[in-house]
Amino acid sequence: MKKRVAVISLGCPKNWVDTETIVGLLKATGEVTFVSDLKEADVILVNTCGFIQPAKEESIDEILNAIEEKKENPEKKVVVAGCLYERYKEELKKELPEVDAFIGVNELLESVERILNRKVAFRKPYLLREILTPNHLAYLKISEGCSNACTYCAIPLIRGPLRSRPIDEVLDEAKRLADLGVKELYVIAQDTTAYLYDRREREGLLKLLKELEKIKGIEWIRLMYTYPSHITDDLIDYMASSEKLVKYIDVPLQHVNDKVLSSMGRKYTRRQAEELIEKLRKRVPGIAIRTTFIVGFPTEGEREFEELHSFLKDYEFDWAGFFKYSREDGTVAYRLGDLPEEVKKSRLELLEETQFWIYEKRNRELIGKEVQLIVDSSTSELPGYSEARSYRNAYEIDGIVYLKGHFRPGRFVRAKVTELASNVDLIAEPVK
């Protein structure tokens, strides 16, 4: 009888790929079936995040919830995987004796043994990945770890230094994704622009992108998690001329005050960040820029915060995420102390409010324009409409476009923007 497995995946898209890999390995054995109801499961797998405090708390809550289900049925098996375990191995083993097995971030190949108690050998396990996103889009993780040494970041403590995957392996996986019907590929890593730096290649990402563009079936390639000072002129020029690399870039700036950037261990200045933004907008007309900022870093005083706030208003980013600084044990910045929670909260709210109105301004500029959309799903939000996205919108993190009519997911539709659905979302009609 097949074991019924329920899977809970937390954290970032990099962790999501790990979940898809574990699910694919389990599925390849032919011995499991997957269920969504924890009560029906023989095994509950929780793939955790351990990056910052709120993520750790969410992970613990999900583990405790799974343990409660096990109390109802002691035959159930609870398995904990991912970053939280990798970061706090001994503590979790001691505090959670009810957990039957643990899987570290570098132990994905052992997942079948830990879950099903049997050994397996797969020649190319990455080709067995089970895509859990909509069929027309997928993440392509090109490296593990990070060597940028940002003082606030726990990723190197969890996943170690940069380790790029061999380019042939990455391309094999991308071709398989295309064969499965994937049309939009998200290139991800802790720092995608550092791809092959550990193998002494400075244009490794550009080399990879040029090969990905040749893969039949892939229509859009989206570049995520780039590092400002690693974005080269050649990469910018390629984005401007490429038919498949969409004119969208995710470039986390984290801050703009030079003192704060220095204490964060970021290897650029405000002026260099400004030059990069101006260069991107000049050489890639219409580019959509997503960024993120950390609010309330220990060296951020009122003056430094106001500089960040003014910068946000001046540059009007298409998309921006804001995070309260989380003081993480083991990081270099931990010894800098922390700001009061109410200070961080009020600063965060002010930035979010400012960005909210920037969204409306940027989106109003799109009314009356034609855009190419990719359809994601039907929607209950607006009857008679489908959920779609333009090149300006990354899946699940940016706004959406409500497209009039019903279209199958993965279809590309030319449409005209007619009005705002909200500050971040648009409404469009197909162009006949």
Instruction: State the CATH architecture of the largest domain.
Output: Alpha-Beta Horseshoe
Shape: globular
Helix-and-strand structural type = alpha/beta
CATH fold-level assignment of the largest domain? pyruvate-formate lyase- activating enzyme
Q: Specify the number of helices.
A: 13
State mean pLDDT (0 to 100 scale): 94
What is the class of the largest domain in the CATH system?
A: Alpha Beta
Q: What about the largest sheet?
A: 6 strands, parallel
- Total beta-strand segments: 18
How would you describe this structure to a colleague?
By secondary structure, the protein is α/β, with parallel strands linked by helices. It has three domains: 3-125, Rossmann fold, CATH 3.40.50; 126-364, pyruvate-formate lyase- activating enzyme, CATH 3.80.30.20; 370-430, Beta Barrel (OB fold (Dihydrolipoamide Acetyltransferase, E2P)), CATH 2.40.50.140. The chain contains 13 helices and 18 strands. It has helices spanning 13-28, 53-72, 83-87, 89-95, 111-116, 155-159, 167-179, 204-212, 233-241, 258-264, 270-283, 302-315, 341-364, and strands at residues 3-9, 32-34, 43-48, 77-82, 101-103, 137-141, 143-144, 163-164, 184-188, 220-223, 245-250, 288-295, 319-324, 370-378, 385-389, 401-404, 412-420, 426-430. Strands 6-9-10-11-12-13 form a six-stranded parallel beta sheet. A five-stranded parallel beta sheet has the order 2-1-3-4-5, sandwiched between helices. The protein has a five-stranded mixed β-barrel with strand order 14-15-16-18-17. A hairpin with a 5-residue loop joins strand 17 and strand 18. Helix 12 (302-315) runs parallel beside helix 13. The radius of gyration is 22 Å and the shape is globular. The model has no long low-confidence stretch (mean pLDDT 94).
